[in-house]
Design a protein that fits this description.
Number of domains: 2
Number of helices: 5
Order of helices and strands: HEHHEEHEHEEEE
């Protein structure tokens, strides 16, 4: 695991890296799904990563065990110089879900870019949009594509509930 990143890293210079955030209860939720998505992004974006998926999985599980992690969010960041594992508290709670979130529309529309289908560390638009929302009295903002289709929020996925059905943007939605 790498906690220091050099200024020569593509992560430092260009924001080139990938990440996954995984909910940890007693164990990682949907661990294989997250790891497969991470490594599919490595392949799809042709990013030069020299960390074996199975070794990284073992490292993550050992990190969780050695640090007795429960009910946290674990982030894996993968980049040219290695990887980092970090944890944070889960900020969402039942009260927030029951009350809902006050949302606005991002001033940035997403176009036809391959990076939006992947969880990249190039997060400037997301940070800008989150600050825009907060500065205007909202909890977050929704990204729309150039066809005004809902994609996601700046820092989280989005879904709607109507009756007993959950609605979320389609995977194949053009961005």
């Amino acid at each position: 695991m790498k906690n220091n990143i050099s200024f020569n890293s593509n992560l430092s210079k260009f924001g080139i890296g990938l990440f996954e955030t995984i909910k940890i209860e007693n164990e990682p939720i949907d661990f294989d799904l997250h790891m497969n998505r991470l490594y599919n992004s490595v392949k799809d974006l042709n990013i030069k990563i020299d960390v074996d998926k199975n070794i990284l999985k073992e490292e993550v599980l050992m990190y969780i065990k050695n640090n007795n992690i429960k009910n946290k969010a674990l982030r894996i960041t993968l980049f040219d110089e290695g990887y980092n594992i970090s944890i944070r508290d889960i900020i969402y709670n039942d009260k927030m879900y029951n009350e809902g979130f006050k949302l606005t529309i991002s001033p940035i529309k997403r176009g036809d870019s391959i990076i939006y289908r992947h969880k990249t560390t190039n997060y400037f638009e997301n940070i800008y949009t989150k600050e825009y929302a907060i500065n205007n009295g909202f909890d977050d903002a929704i990204f729309l594509n150039i066809e005004d289709k809902i994609l996601e929020c700046s820092m989280c996925n989005i879904f709607f509930i109507k009756g007993n059905k959950i609605y979320t943007p389609k995977d194949e939605l053009p961005i």
